[in-house]
Amino acid sequence: MVHAWNTWYKDAKGEKSRFVQFSISGDDGKTWGEPKSLPKNAEAFSVVRHPIVELADDAWLFALSDRTVAYNPKTAAVTDFADGQKHGLVPIVRTPKGTLVSGAGKRSTDGGKTWEKVDPFPKIGQNGWRFDLVALDNGYLIASEVLGEGIGGNKWRFVVSRDDGKSWDFAGAVEFYNPGRPIGGRACPRTIQLDRDTIGTVFYDDDKNQPGGSGVFFLRTPIKALGGK
């Protein structure tokens, strides 16, 4: 397991900046190794918002705010990823067929060397905290869209692709959280596959008037609810 986060520090000018650190667990999260750091960028924040993609034993894909890089965990070397382009603070996932799909609305079948635009594509913004993209074992891709005003929106829905990211079923989108009011805070919904039948979404909602008050919540959604055959 790899946990990555953003660390504040003061740069050479004495101004606040950020860089990415991560830690590894080899026992299902019971214990964690010492933090390791990606190189600092003297000219810009370097921020991560989404999970890495393990491309190979010696190549982890980090989609950062300042660049998109491949990190070698064996040597700690960092290089620009594939096409050398910055994809921004959007999730990038790899499907069971090996296709890379970027939250920027693009897909690549050659390991990220070239990309084709997908249009229409779910509204996954560049700020990184509102949106999520997940590849399921059955080949589905699910994007969580935050709809409504404010950074938390008013309701959330899953939009599904069943053809390796080529097209998206907007008409069959599945609403999975709608409290009937603005959702408090950035919320940061993040979804994972729990087993062959279920996905789970963790998020926070800081509305103090909701039952139980402000807190972190977890929702389960049956994969069969996402439609398809």
Protein topology:
Elements: E1 2-10, E2 16-24, E3 36-37, E4 53-56, E5 59-63, E6 68-71, E7 78-80, E8 92-94, E9 100-102, E10 106-108, E11 116-117, E12 132-135, E13 141-147, E14 155-161, E15 169-177, E16 190-193, E17 198-205, E18 215-222
Antiparallel strand pairs: 1-2, 2-3, 4-5, 5-6, 6-7, 8-9, 9-10, 10-11, 12-13, 13-14, 14-15, 16-17, 17-18
Describe the protein.
- The chain has 229 residues and is an all-beta fold.
- The protein folds into two domains: 1-119; 123-229, no CATH class.
- It contains no helices and 18 strands.
- The chain has strands at 2-10, 16-24, 36-37, 53-56, 59-63, 68-71, 78-80, 92-94, 100-102, 106-108, 116-117, 132-135, 141-147, 155-161, 169-177, 190-193, 198-205, 215-222.
- It has a four-stranded antiparallel β-sheet with strand order 4-5-6-7, with no helix packed on it.
- A hairpin with a 2-residue loop joins strand 4 (53-56) and strand 5.
- It is globular, with a radius of gyration of 18 Å.
- The model has no long low-confidence stretch (mean pLDDT 92).
